[in-house]
Every structure is written in C-alpha cells, then in structure tokens.
Design goal:
The complex is a heterodimer of chains A (137) and B (195). With 137 residues, chain A is of the alpha+beta class. Chain A has one domain: Immunoglobulin-like (Sandwich), CATH 2.60.40. Chain A is built from two helices and seven strands. The longest helix of chain A is centred in the N-terminal third of the chain and has 15 residues. About 4% of the residues of chain A have low confidence. The model of chain B has no long low-confidence stretch (mean pLDDT 90). By secondary structure, chain B is an alpha/beta fold. The longest helix of chain B is centred in the N-terminal third of the chain and has 18 residues. Helix content of chain B is 33%, strand content 30%. In chain B, helix 2 runs parallel beside helix 3. In chain B, the strands form two sheets. A five-stranded mixed beta sheet of chain B has the order 3-2-4-5-6, covered by helices on one side. A two-stranded antiparallel sheet of chain B has the order 1-7. The chains are: A alpha+beta (137), B alpha/beta (195). Chains A and B meet through loops of A and helix 2 and helix 3 of B.
C-alpha cells in the first residue's frame, strides 16, 4: 500500500514539475504611463480567478481614434494553466457590436507569470468593453 | 461480490462507449471547436484574420490616405501548405473587419490579371464611364498580398504543426507600408474537441 502511494506521489510530482513557475525582471523606473481604468468584476470560478487573475485594465486610443484595451493577468499559482478569453465591445447606447475582430482566443500562462492580453475595438463607435475569461480544456 | 460490482461497471462503460455525442451546434471558432493536427481549422483562420485586422487598425496606416476610407484591392495570397485552402476563409474576414471599422472598402472590380471579382459591377462601372464620358474609377490605395506557410515537426508520437499567416499591405507606390505575421502552433498526439 505504501509503495503504491509513494509511486502515485512521484507521478503527481513529475506531472506538476512539467511546467516550472516563471521568474522575471523589468526596469523599475518606468517611462510609460498606463491609463488605468476602474473595473467591475463577476467571479464565478474561483480556481480560474487564482490561475488567471486580472491585475488591472488600461486603455489607449490608436492614431485612427479606435479604443485599445490591455489587461494584465497574473497566475498566482505555481502551475501552468490553459485558458481562453474574448473581448466584447459596446457602442454608446450599450449595444453589443457584432464583429469579426474579437474571437475566442486560446492562451496559456506559466505559474507565477504576469502577462498582457490586448484587443482593439472593431470601430471608433465602440466605447465600452467586457473581457470574458474561461477555463481551458 | 466482485462480479456483482464489476458487471454493472462494464455495462455502464459499454453504454457510454456506444453513445458517442449527438450532433449539436457549437459556436464557430468557439472553445468547443475541434482542434486538428496537421490541418488549419476554422478558429485558426478566425484568429489569423482577427490579428491582422486589429494590427492594421492599430497601425493607423489606413488613416493616412487623402480621401478616406482607403480603397483596398486583393492581390495574391500564396498557399504553401499541404492542404487545399479557400483563401477567402482568411481574406473575407479581414475585408469584413475593415469595412465594419469604416477605415477601408474593398474594390470588387479590380483583380489580378484584370479579372474582376464581380464582373457585373465592372461592366456597370465601364458603362457609366462611357455614358458620362469620363473616368470615375478610383484606383486602389492599397493591395493586400501574403502567404500561408506550414512547418511540421515530430518527436515520438507527438506531432507539431505551425501555420504562419504572412500578410503585406502595399501602397500604390509599391511600398509595403504594413506587414503582419500570425503564427499558430498545435501540438499533440491526436486531434481533440475543444481548446
């Protein structure tokens, strides 16, 4: 029995060790200033919220007057994680804008990694957005 | 005792194995889509087209024309993969995205080798020019060309396919004013449902 448990434990460790958490370094004195926006969240999946935690959202306008959104994600766990995301865009009347530039995107994040995902509005009339995050397969 | 437990288990497993999945609708390009190894899927075209359109809009190059919206003509997109592809699966999405943005319109009367995508529209245009006795055709500001490349690698049972979608936007002076590349890599031992 003990031998079986030890074997199982070893396998679990091997699988967990396939993807090691990430270390990173960056310049401390930032030249760029992010235009952070306040957000409101609906969290239904606490596990996903730990693996793909939204640190903050910032926006900018492109030269053509189209809204660009960037979200900073952080994996607060030590394990690699697959997820998918999609941006939705809304016009001044709060109506969802159907478009081809906002697909469901499959992505992945290493343990402890901070990464950015971004999207651009399909047209200059889009003023608001929503980011949907889903567990990967 | 063992037999009593094992027999129903086998029966249940048999039922599940025999059932399969009933046909149902899924979101095109959504997370329930089939992911194939060695083949470009719908979600790959959607992802590549979306990346190209977003990048083009963000670059602001379409806003630099004298008379907006910019006029775009479709040039050659070379398929260097092992599979037969209808290039419209990529280009149509880009065209729709650019049209919806209000930044560009695509001409259907200008094509490679003088062949119009819409011959009737070209005929009407020529007829109108003849009746008015003046050229009304607006030449394209940009052309879109590109290439799709496939690279494959194997390690034991694991296969990996990378598809590179390379696109160039050339202005009417022959300069590539925007270029984009989206690479999509798929790895595994067999195709699966969902990503």
């Amino acid at each position: 029995m003990k031998t079986k448990l030890a074997g199982l434990f070893a396998v679990v460790l091997m699988v967990a060790g396939c993807h090691n958490p990430m270390n990173s370094v960056e310049n401390a004195q930032k030249s760029g200033q992010r235009n952070m926006v306040s957000d409101q969240r609906v969290v239904m999946d606490m596990g996903l919220n730990r693996s793909v935690s939204v640190v903050g959202l910032n926006t900018a306008m492109t030269p053509g007057g189209v809204l660009k959104v960037q979200a900073e994600l952080l994996n607060t766990t030590k394990s690699f994680h697959r997820f998918s995301y999609q941006f939705e865009w809304f016009d001044l009347n709060g109506m969802l804008v159907n478009n081809v530039v906002s697909p469901v995107v499959a992505d992945q994040i290493e343990g402890g990694e901070s990464k950015f995902i971004s999207a651009i509005a399909p047209n200059p009339a889009c003023k608001d957005f929503r980011l949907k995050l889903l567990e990967g397969h | 005792m063992k037999k009593i437990i094992i027999l129903p288990l086998i029966a249940v497993a048999g039922i599940f194995a025999g059932c399969g999945t009933n046909a149902h609708y899924v979101q095109t390009g959504g997370r329930e889509s089939i992911v194939s190894l060695g083949q470009i899927n719908d979600q790959d075209f959607i992802s590549a087209a979306s990346a190209a359109t977003s990048d083009l809009l963000a670059s602001g190059v379409l806003d630099r024309v004298k008379n907006p919206p910019a006029v775009l003509a479709m040039s050659r997109i070379v398929n260097n993969t092992g599979q037969q592809i209808d290039i419209d699966l990529l280009t149509k999405k880009i065209r729709v995205g650019l049209l919806q943005s209000g930044k560009a319109v695509t001409t259907t009367t200008f094509g490679l080798g003088g062949q119009a995508e819409d011959p009737l529209a070209k005929g009407i245009q020529q007829q109108q020019e003849f009746m008015n006795d003046q050229k009304t055709t607006r030449l394209p500001d940009f052309t879109l060309s590109g290439k799709i490349i496939e690279t494959k690698a194997n390690a034991g049972d694991t296969s990996q396919s990378t598809y590179s979608f390379q696109l160039s936007l050339t202005d009417n002076q022959g300069l590539a004013v925007w270029e984009g590349e989206k690479q999509i890599t798929k790895q595994g031992t067999r195709s699966s449902v969902g990503f």
